[in-house]
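Subject: sequence -> structure tokens, single chain

Hey, anyone have a minute? Need the predicted structure for the following. Not urgent.
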Amino acid sequence: MATVILLSFNVSLWAQNAVPTSSEVSADSVPAVDSARFEASEDIVAEELAAGAGFGNSLKQKFIEGNAGFMSLVALALVLGLAFCIERIIYLTLSEVNTQKLLGEIEVKVDAGDLEGARELCRNTRGPVASICYQGLLRIHESIENIERSITSYGSVQVGYLEKGCSWIKLFIAIAPSLGFLGTVIGMVMAFDQIQAAGDLSATVVASGMKVALITTIFGIVVALILQLFYNYILAKIERLTHQMEDAAIMLVDIIVDYKQPNR
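Reply:
Had a minute. Here:
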């Protein structure tokens, strides 16, 4: 009986030592799980990089296939057009000003009789709104008709400054698809030349020439669309600044009329 009890005790003790605890299982499995997650994240990053590289290589390949000469002209139109767009956006952004705040400060100085301080405020403020206000304050002692005429004339000059360079953007918008269409025509001529040289109306020969022709058209239209989006945004900013100038001119005339009242 004692022998049986001893044997059963040894068997239970061996089973306890053989079966791993939960802490041991978790400790052994954590590095494996972390390693699997790290490998999965590396695979995702590698796939993303491969997709980006694949798109870049595909774009470069299409650029080369589309007759490098005409494609270079289309790319040049895009670069120059974007340069003019960025310059106009920066200029128009810097020209914006808080019209209500500026006219409020001018009104305070004019009511206090500090005309030179009002002019100095306009000189130190950037933008066309401050410029037309300065022109009106320079002629504050003249008649209202002369002041309005001066503000209107100088406002037209400021609008011309705002629209400076927009004609070049419109030119590149028109040039880009035109170059693409020109490349299309030349590509079709090349396709027919290849057919004539081969002496056979082969689908492979025709497809290669038409492929070059269509690629140049696609790139030209894409460039025109990109520049058109920027151009419309620039026109919207010019229109907003023009409205600000008109509102400022009306408010300035009202301030000057109140200043000229006999009961002051």
